[in-house]
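C-alpha cells help. One example:
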Amino acid sequence: MKVRDSATGVASGSSQMAAASTESAKVSVEAASAIDEVTSTMHEMSIKCPKRREEHADANFERRRYVRFH
C-alpha cells in the first residue's frame, strides 16, 4: 500500500513538473517573440532616423536659403 501511494505521489509530481516545464517553454517562446519584435522595430528606427534627420536638415537649409533671398 505504501509503495503504491509513493508511486502515485511520484507520478503526480512528475505530471506537475511536466506541466510547469510546458508552461515555462511557452513563456520563453512568447518572450523570444517579443524580443524579436522590439529588435525589428529598433532596426526600422535606426534606418528611418538618419533619413528623417537628413530630410529635416535639407528642409531647414531650404528654409534659411528662402528667407535669406526673399
